[in-house]
Each structure stands twice: as C-alpha cells, then as structure tokens.
Amino acid sequence: MKKSLDDRLHEEMNREQELPEIVQKAFDRSYEEIRSKTTKKIKKRWLKPISAAAACAVLASGVILSNDTAMAKLKAFLGFQEDAGIELASQNGEVQYVGVSQSSQDVTVTLENTFADAYRVGLQFNILPKSMDIRDIQHISIEYRIYDSKGKEIDAHVSDTKPLTSKGLAGNTEERMLKGTDQSIILEQILQSNDQAWPSLDNAQLVIETIHFFTEKKGIVHINGEWPFTLTPTKVVTQSFEAEKAVEGIQLQSATLTNGSMHVSLMVDADLYEDVDPLFEWALTNAKGESFYARGANIELKDGKTVVSLVYPYSIWNKEKQLSLNIKGYEELKLKSKD
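User: That's the sequence. What structure does it adopt?
Assistant: Structure tokens below.
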C-alpha cells in the first residue's frame, strides 16, 4: 500500500533523531494540529517532506554549536540547507540589519536581521531569557502577528485560543535554533507564502505575543508579553515569465522570479489532490542543467483539474534566466521572460 505524505512525514520526524521527550511531544502536537487543519479544507498547503524532516532533525538537536561555529553559521544568514535562492540573495546584500531590542516579562528579544521578497520573509532573533538556564532549553517557538503600515493584520501564528483577524499568508515555516552564547539563543525563521505574494512590509509591525521555551527540567515554559518591532524598508524586485509554447495537459497561470524565490502557478489536467508526493519531484531547471525543487506547495481542485502553486529556491540574482519546468509524464515546459 502506498504511503501518504502524512505517514512519510511522521515517520521521518521520528526516525531522523531521537528527540527529548518534551520536544517530541511538542512536535507531535504541532504536527497533529497542522494535519487536522489541512484535511478539513479543499485547499492544501504542504512543506516539502524532505525539508520538513530535515527541519525537525535540526530543531531536535537544537543545533547546539560552539561559539566559533555559531558565528560562522550566522555569517550566512538564513543559510538553510539546499536553499540556493536565499543564500544567493544574502550574498548580494538582500539582508536588512535591524538590531532593535524589546524587553518584556524578563525576556529580551532582539530582531537582528530580516529578509523579504515577494513570497518569503526571513527573520533572525536573539532571545535572552534572563531568569532561565540556557543549557536547559531544547527548543523555542514564538507566537506572533504581522500588521501592515496601516495596522491591518496580514499574518499570524498564534494558538487556537487567540482571535484571528486574517487568514494568514505563511503556508509553511522553516526554522532553526542556535545556542550562540551561554546567555542567549538565536532563532531564525523563513515564512513562506505558497499561494500569493506578500503585501508591502515597509514599516509593517511584527509583534511577538508569546514565547514557548521547551526545557528538559521544567517542561514547557510559556511567557506571555509584548515584543513589538517595526520592519525596515526592503526593495522587492520581480521578473515575470511566460510559457515559450503550450504544453498539452498543463496551463501555466503565472511564473514570477523575485529576490530569493521563484513562484510558479499552473493548472494540470489531472486530480493530484490525494497524492502530493510527485509535486516535489517537479524540477525547475536552468540552462546550466542545475535543478531546484519546491520547498512548499499549495494545491486546489477545480472541476477535476488541479491548480498547483509552488515556491522554488531560485534567486533573481542568478544569471541563468533560461528556465524550464520538468514534470514527469509531460513535455518540458520552457519559460521565457516577459520583459
């Protein structure tokens, strides 16, 4: 019997590494919450299975590095494995230094750096819990809201007990935690919108409401407070593509290359809703023969056809702009710039 994505993901989460019990329970609970929400809707949002497993393994280990190693890692801001898009964008000065600190409930949070393009937002925090033993902390998670410059909530990651005024844009989140010193912890996140572009984040407000510390000795410690940050202006650039020629069975709806991401939306003449695994085998290939695979996907059924939206780790800084989509069972879909 073919395994579903749910089964595969859960197996990977448990097989990659033995987790401390408190962290394992937290992952299990979060996974079940995500699973229950996605199965109730006709629209599905998925994180690439391999990326999810790798992310869980990273979080499980806590990425507890020596100071020298941690500092080396931080030089490649948001340098997640196999994320060529954000890595290249970072190398070309796309990271905005903020360095602003906020304190509440004996916890100081510093927003160190940010990254933003049309479909992904990167955040780097330095978290200093003054009354806690850093060595006992296995993992950290945060609850936050993002408001645009006019105060409208555009995204939120909060518990079900809190009210929501937006549907939220982040279809999936990748993160890693580094213990850079004996006093503070670095938390990095990538918030990805699989379905639509982020609105302008210039002068937007990011407000952290709750910080969850997963500890080995005390269990989960919840700290409710308020840590507000104003996001610095960013220059988001985009380049639109179209199909060079029609491909039977596939209709390209949009293709947009931005600072560190490539967003592609297409309609396939097939029902892919129940088996999403092949989506992450669809390669974005450039003229050099390099292949890139989606880190997230959104699928929706429409009259027996499937609308698929994917985000690839490809940067507008990449000089190779001759791109194509290679989808098993279909002719190669070549893309050309509209400009």
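The first strand starts at residue 43 and ends at 47.
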